[in-house]
Structures are given as structure tokens and as C-alpha cells.
Specification:
The structure is a single chain. The protein is α+β, with helices and mostly antiparallel strands. The protein has three domains: about 90 residues, no CATH class; about 110 residues, Butyryl-CoA Dehydrogenase, subunit A, domain 2, CATH 2.40.110; about 150 residues, Butyryl-CoA Dehydrogenase, subunit A, domain 3, CATH 1.20.140. It has eleven helices and eleven strands. The strands form four sheets. The chain has a four-stranded antiparallel β-sheet, with no helix packed on it. Strands 3-6-7 form a three-stranded mixed β-sheet, covered by helices on one side. The protein has a two-stranded antiparallel ribbon with strand order 1-2. Helix 5 runs antiparallel to helix 7 and helix 8 packs antiparallel against helix 9. The chain is globular and about 80 Å long.
């Protein structure tokens, strides 16, 4: 690991442990996530500490994926850490995509405010299943776009759009006669209408997850991201690193949950000795160490592949499956070790359990990634027979 990444990661960890964690009891939040006022206050503190958007360097370049991994893991030690440091989803993934695909004009208008931490963003891809729309299969996209002079007109419905409420920058996916397209839009826009913010198991993302109607949205042609019909290619540029970034952040929270559970097991006594001395408890904590270490190794391996310039779709699928399942086991054991306290709001363990459970679904549920891997196994077998 590079010295610059170690230095940045150490600063981020100190900031999250000393400044951010005390805010976990702050009441400025609702069922869907922290209020924007709380996020702004935390980001000002991050700016003062020199840890705002730490994965993007002053010249606009990004840390490598391996370097990013240790920085985002430290930011994830609190559910508020990624928000404070501006390493949270969906903004971090959207920054990465815009840095790779956007024009200089688009970067100045839409990317720079995200990097500065003064704007939030949303990625409009997923659609309602009841409409037969795109979920884990983006090829089912129902949202359309058509050229009208110097504009594109977009119509459709979207669902589970994280951060649309209160966001300033939107990336909207739609299909033209050429295929999938992406558009950069300013939010709010009267043509983009929130029909409801959905109640979900997780509660760490400002704005929650919204259901959206898009009715005759007119977007200037120069706000198309890249070229018409190339949207699926751009989605892969974004999604493979974004899956890995989720793994990085939630590894940090799982580490924190394990720390809390281990402390509880050493302090709490039952039947004449500390809980940790009972094999049923001690072995669960031992299994946590194994899962956490394996998750770290999987993340580092996948990051190394992405750093070669590969899209890393196979590697990111394997890592997303392995890490999300392993971290859920860790969170579940932490709850079990702590008993009634584990399911209460007295510690962050209960939220860690909820957040990591949701992680097993978004950015592709475990079963979809396994199906994709099975298809690769079949393709490789057919190729070997030729």
C-alpha cells in the first residue's frame, strides 16, 4: 500500500472516530436517512479536517482502487462517515462515472459541485417491476428518449432512486432508437416528480429511495453523457467499481460492529465468567475475524484487477457476493452476541445489521451475480470444447 493512501486513511479514521461517531445520536434524521442540515454540518467539519472527498486528489485524479479501498473502509466505520467525508453512494459512483465519461463542460457544471461536497446526486436507472421495467436486468428498460431539435424528451418511471429527494445532480438512463442513453439533469425539475419515498429496511442515505415519474422531461442535447446508444457501456464503467465501493464502506461498519460486540462479550458476565469465555460466544467472534479478513482480501484482489484497467465485471460480481454475504454473517453474529442490546438502538450494531442486509440486494442481488457467474462457466466450457 502506498504511503499517501495510508496517510489519508489514518486521517479519515481519526476524523470518523473522534468527530463523526458522537453524531450518531443526533436527532436530525427521519426514517429514510440523515437530514441535509446534518450532512452539511459534518461536511464542513470534514473540510476543516482535510478529509472531504479524500479519494479524489487535488488535480482531479482518483486514488487507485486499492488505495481507495483502505480510505473508504475507514470512512465506513460509522454510517455517517461516508456522508461526512463525501465518499457515500450514489455520489461516489457518480463522481467516478463523470470523471471517466463527461466532457470538460459537463465536469465543470455537474462534477465539480459533487467533489466540493456542496451537491448530492441520484442515478435514475431502476424501474418499477410492476411495469416490467429494468431492475437487475437493465435491458428491460421502459423509459424512453427521443430527439426533438436541440433537446431530448424523456418519459418513464423509476423506482428505488437513492437521493433523488434533495439532490442537485441527476443521471437519467433512457432508451433511444440507438439503445441506452444517459443524460445529466439539474434537480429539482418539475418534469421529474416524486410519487413517494419508499419505506425500506436501511436508513443511512439522505433522501431515501424514491419512486419517480418522468413526464416530458426536456434535456438539452449537450447534456447527453457520451454518445447515444452507449449507456449500457457507461453503466458498466460505473457499476463494477461502485459494487466494490459498497464492499469497502460496509466492511468498515462490520469492523465497528465487531469491535462493539467483542467489547460487550468481554465486559458482560454470565454463569460465572465473561461471555467471551463461553465457546458459543467466543466461536462466533472468531468466525467474525475470519469473515472480516476474507472480505478484506477479496476487496484487495478485485481492486487490483480494476487497477489494471479491466472492467472487472466477473471479479466484482464474485466480490460483491462473497463480501455482502460474509458481512451479513458478521452483523448477524454481533446482534446475537449482544442479545437484547443487539436489537436495540443503544449501539450502532442494530443499524449495521439492517444496512448490510439491504446491501445483499442493491447493485445486484446475490442470486443475479451467481447466475452471471454460472453463464461465464458455461461460456468458458463451450470455448474449451471448440
Amino acid at each position: 500500500m502506498t504511503e499517501r493512501a495510508e496517510t489519508i486513511a489514518a486521517k479519515v479514521e481519526t476524523f470518523v472516530r473522534d468527530i463523526v461517531i458522537p453524531y450518531e445520536k443526533d436527532g436530525r434524521r427521519d426514517h429514510h436517512g440523515p437530514a441535509d442540515a446534518l450532512v452539511r454540518e459534518l461536511r464542513e467539519k470534514a473540510r476543516a479536517a482535510g478529509v472531504l472527498t479524500p479519494h479524489v486528489l487535488p488535480d482531479g485524479s482518483h486514488l487507485t482502487q486499492r488505495e481507495t479501498a483502505i480510505v473508504l473502509r475507514r470512512s465506513g466505520l460509522s454510517p455517517l462517515g461516508p456522508l461526512a467525508c463525501n465518499t457515500a453512494a450514489p455520489d461516489e459512483g457518480n463522481m467516478y462515472l463523470l470523471g471517466k465519461v463527461a466532457s470538460a463542460e459537463q465536469r465543470a457544471r455537474f462534477l465539480d459541485p459533487l467533489i466540493a461536497g456542496v451537491a448530492r446526486s441520484a442515478f435514475f436507472m431502476t424501474e418499477p417491476a410492476e411495469d416490467g421495467g429494468a431492475g437487475s436486468d437493465p435491458s428491460m428498460m421502459q423509459t424512453t428518449c427521443r430527439r426533438d431539435g436541440d433537446h431530448w424528451v424523456i418519459n418513464g418511471r423509476k423506482k428505488f432512486i437513492t437521493g433523488a429527494e434533495g439532490g442537485s445532480v441527476g443521471i437519467v438512463m433512457a432508451k433511444s432508437d440507438d439503445g441506452a442513453c444517459m443524460f445529466l439533469v439539474d434537480l429539482p425539475d418539475p418534469a421529474i416528480r416524486t410519487t413517494r419515498v419508499i419505506d425500506t429496511i436501511d436508513s443511512s442515505m439522505p433522501g431515501g429511495h424514491a419512486e419517480i415519474d418522468i413526464v416530458d422531461l426536456r434535456v438539452p442535447a449537450h447534456q447527453m453523457l457520451g454518445a447515444s446508444g452507449e449507456g449500457f457501456k457507461y453503466a458498466q464503467i460505473r457499476l463494477s467499481p461502485a459494487r466494490l465501493s459498497h464492499c469497502m464502506r460496509w466492511l468498515g461498519l462490520a469492523i465497528r460492529a465487531h469491535e462493539i460486540a467483542a467489547d460487550y462479550a468481554n465486559r458482560r458476565h454470565a454463569f460465572g465468567k465473561p461471555l467471551v469465555d463461553h465457546e458459543g460466544v467466543g466461536f462466533m467472534l472468531a468466525d467474525n475475524l475470519i469473515d472480516l479478513q476474507q472480505s478484506e482480501l477479496m476487496i484487495d484482489w478485485c481492486a487490483s484487477v480494476l487497477d489494471t484497467g479491466s472492467l472487472g465485471t466477473t471479479e466484482s460480481s464474485m466480490t460483491k457476493v462473497a463480501v455482502s454475504d460474509a458481512l451479513f454473517r458478521v452483523a448477524d453474529r454481533c446482534v446475537q452476541v449482544m442479545g437484547g442490546t443487539g436489537v436495540s438502538g443503544d449501539t450502532i450494531v442494530e443499524q449495521a445489521f439492517r444496512e448490510i442486509r439491504a446491501f445483499r440486494i442493491y447493485d445486484g442481488p446475490t442470486e443475479v451475480h451467481k447466475w452471471s457467474l454460472a453463464k461465464k462457466i458455461k461460456r468458458d466450457w463451450i470455448a474449451a470444447q471448440a
